[in-house]
Amino acid sequence: MIEIFQNIREIYDFTAPCGELMPYIEFFSESSAEKCELYFDRGHASVTMFESWTPTFYINLTGGYVIDVGGKHHNIGNGKDILILRNGLVTRHNQPGDRIFTVKFYPGGLEAVLGLNQVSMGDRVVSLNRILPQTLLTMLKGAVSFIDRITIMEKFLLTAMRGKVASDYYSRIVLAAIGEYTTTDMQLNTSKIAERLFISSKSINRYFNRVVGVAPKSYFSVLRARTALTAMVGNRNDFKPWIYGYYDPAHFYKDVFRFTGRKISEVL
């Protein structure tokens, strides 16, 4: 299956984080035995995801699987837990019995909550036991339900975040810039966003490269393409690309091809 073009989420349960973590974490998710039984044969044996620059924990509750990151195969053995950045194409190869608990951070969210900079994680598969306490991972795997795992993880993350001396200034600016871009319907360029945050264009570029690992123009282009393509797939008849800052349909189609490597006509 291919992210956005197909419903890769239909075999998972999803929950948003608590309010204090909401600016930093997009969601918690877990593969569902019931949903896998119903929908796995629709193509979930192989799932391809596009770049998003979102650090993501994959906590392995059963079995093992293979994941392609940075053009390389990685065999994730039974009990191994990983962190990836998703700065490029990622393909995960699954079995119906796989059970994975996922924490997906927004760009810069990992640094804001745990003080870990994501820039050096590009195209890497990082073992989570280098980042999270083994006692926490053991508790998560021993929990009896998805909801219990969320409770355990949120308690840990909230404690870690509150224990920091102060929120990182650069991370806060980056998260604020992303917020400005999305709440203004993705119509503003980098310079305009910098003006709204009372910083220079040079500064906002430096902050994004330091926190996210890519320039703001490049990140906003990815975010816009993901958001607009998702909207088009959801309701093609009512889709208007200029709502998302595109000049016309040709501009949008060109951006989709650059982002996905596929023409709209090939997949829809």
- Distance from N terminus to C terminus (CA atoms, Å) equals 13 Å
Helix/strand order, N-terminal first: EEHEEEEEEEHEHHHHHHHH
The CATH class of the largest domain is Mainly Beta
Number of domains: 2
What's the total number of strands? 10
Organism: Pararcticibacter amylolyticus
InterPro entries: HTH_AraC (IPR018060)
GO molecular function, one term: DNA-binding transcription factor activity
Protein name: AraC family transcriptional regulator
Description:
The protein has 268 residues and is of the alpha+beta class. The protein folds into 2 domains: 12-162, Jelly Rolls (Sandwich); 169-267, Homeodomain-like (Arc Repressor Mutant, subunit A), CATH 1.10.10. Helix content is 40%, strand content 17%. The protein is built from 10 helices and 10 strands. The chain has helices at 33-39, 109-114, 134-142, 146-162, 169-183, 190-196, 201-211, 216-234, 249-260, 264-267, and strands spanning 12-15, 25-31, 46-49, 56-60, 65-69, 72-76, 82-84, 90-93, 100-105, 126-127. Strands 1-2-9-4-7-10 form a 6-stranded antiparallel β-sheet. Strands 3-8-5-6 form a 4-stranded antiparallel β-sheet, with no helix packed on it. The longest helix has 19 residues, at 216-234. The radius of gyration is 19 Å and the shape is globular. It starts with 11 loop residues before the first strand and ends with a helix. InterPro entries: HTH_AraC. GO terms for molecular function: DNA-binding transcription factor activity; sequence-specific DNA binding. This is AraC family transcriptional regulator. Residues 172-268 form the HTH araC/xylS-type domain.
